UniProtKB/TrEMBL annotation:
One Pfam family recorded for the sequence: Ammonium_transp
Species annotation: Ridgeia piscesae
Membrane topology summary: Multi-pass membrane protein
Keywords tagged on the record: Membrane, Transmembrane, Transmembrane helix
Full protein name: Ammonium transporter AmtB-like domain-containing protein
GO molecular function: ammonium channel activity
Keyword Protein biosynthesis recorded: no
A GO biological process held by the record: ammonium homeostasis
Transmembrane segments: 36-56, 77-94
Residues in Ammonium transporter AmtB-like domain copies: 37-146
Primary location class: membrane
Membrane keyword on record: yes
């Protein structure tokens, strides 16, 4: 029989339970600011896909339509980002409400804080919002591609 390490079990349990804290390889707890920096770095990489799709689409159309394609991509980002801010984040990541029976979130519309949130939680929510928003707006650009 294999023996297990108690600290390893705590790391696995901490991740499975879904706590906001993460652990490094040695089992020590990382700060939320380190998580936010990593998430925002990945967000920047994902968001640069927008310009790549714009350049790809403008290369596939005639010269007179290049401005239209770039405006379409800009509008996709603006409208998609605002829609995700208004509704998308709340439906995807808000806490379930009894009337919705846990099917989708029912709070955090417009990133409003819930009861019991601390200022340290706000940075995590904003980082997660920008990360998920970059995916949502990139998906919108892919779907509406030329």
């Amino acid at each position: 029989m294999a023996t297990t390490n108690a600290s390893t079990e705590g790391v696995v349990a901490g991740r499975l339970i879904g706590s906001n804290s993460t652990f490094s390889n040695d089992g020590s707890q990382m700060s939320n600011s380190e998580d936010a920096i990593w998430i925002l770095s990945c967000t920047f990489i994902i968001f640069t896909m927008q310009s790549g799709f714009g350049l790809l689409e403008s290369g596939l159309v005639s010269k007179k339509d290049e401005v239209n394609i770039m405006m379409k991509n800009a509008i996709d980002v603006i409208v998609g980002g605002l829609s995700f801010w208004l509704f998308g984040y709340a439906f995807s990541f808000g806490d379930g409400v009894d009337s919705l029976r846990g099917f989708s979130g029912g709070n955090r519309f417009m990133l409003m804080a819930s009861e019991g949130d601390t200022k340290a939680d706000a940075g995590t929510y904003y980082a997660r919002f920008f990360f998920q928003s970059s995916f949502a707006t990139t998906a919108t650009t892919i779907v509406s591609g030329g």
